[in-house]
Structure formats: C-alpha cells, structure tokens
Amino acid sequence: MKFFVDTADIAAIAELNDLGMVDGVTTNPSIIAKSGRDILEVTKEICDLVEGPVSAEVVALDADSMITEGRKLAEIAENIAVKVPLTWDGLKACKVLSGEGKMVNVTLCFSANQALLAAKAGATFISPFIGRLDDINLDGLELISDIRDIYDNYGFDTQILAASIRNANHMSDCAKIGADVATAPPAVIKAMANHVLTDKGLAGFMADIAKAGIKIV
Ligand code: G3P
Known about the structure:
The chain is α/β, with parallel strands linked by helices. Helices cover 52% and strands 17% of the residues.
C-alpha cells in the first residue's frame, strides 16, 4: 500500500520522506488555509520535495472554472494530481482533465455509487473519506471494501486512495482490504510504530545490558 501524507507542513513531509515513508502528498482547501501560505507556492515546494503524486484541489464549483483551475494547478509540476469534488461538475472536470492526460483525484467520496461514477469519468484516484463516515456512525472501512470489490469486478484502473484516516488501525485495515493508497496526517503514520510491548521489551533489554555492563565500543 502506498503512503501519502495528508498535510502542507513541509518539515513534516521532509522528515517522513527521508525515511522512505512518502509515496505522495494530499492537500485540500482546509489544509492549505491552515498553512497560511499561497496555494501555488506551497504546492510547488511540496512537488519539489517528493517524487510521487501531489494532490492540489480546485476551489471553483462549476466545471468550466474547475477545468481552468485544474490546468493552472497541473502547470506547477509533472507530479500534480488535480483534486476535484465528487459532484456532477467535478465529474465533468475529471473527464476533461483526465482526457488531457492529467492525473485527477476525485475527493469527498462517501458512497460506492459515487466511486463508480468517478472510475467511469477516468479518475486516477478516488478518495473515500473513512473518518467522516465513522464520525456519523457509518462504516468507512466497509465503503473501502465495497469499492475494492466493484473496481475488481470490472477491472477499473482508478486507484482507491483511502482518506480521512483517523488512526493507525485505519492504515492496517485499509491494507488488509487492499486499498491502493492511504493518505494520513504525519502523526498517524508515526503512531503506526507505537506498541507498549515494544517499549516494555526495550526497557528490559536496556536494564539487562546495564546490569551486565555490556557496551559495543
Ligand atoms: O484531505 C482529505 C482527507 O484526508 C481529509 O480528512 O481529517 O479532514 O476528514 P479529514
């Protein structure tokens, strides 16, 4: 499973990228707003930092304006994936932009029907939002599983990019289901390393080493 980092925090991306943990980056209008930076400037900096796809989202709501903005975003770098919302206008923009050979990430997906439409519109990635479904007592992972089944039934090339990841379990659960990508905040990716028995075992090793006075010099 590919790991994308869901942030515009350059330092956080760089830290994980140095560990080989970054196969791409996703942003959205809220993440860009939180960065306090110009969207084109921060997106260019991210594209210069990572080789994989970098999703940058349009802010228009009508298809023609989305297409214009998408073309502008795609000019930033070769590895830009233009992000469009899962609306009819977003699907129209997806069809045109993907037809021009641009990567398109269709976002704000909350149903299998929406994911089916995105695949038929030529989406490179589909972004089902797990956490936001869980937040209203629906099953985000079940949606990932349903989309996986549908895409595999018909050989759709669209990659499932699990998004709105809230915790480390979401990452392993998405991998078990067969999501192509999961995009998560840096803290969630880091939390995947945590286990109380690892900490306990290491403390035991260190105590025994200290007792025995063993050093590697
Ligand atoms: O960026 C897309 C998605 O990951 C947003 O997640 O946490 O705002 O539901 P969240």
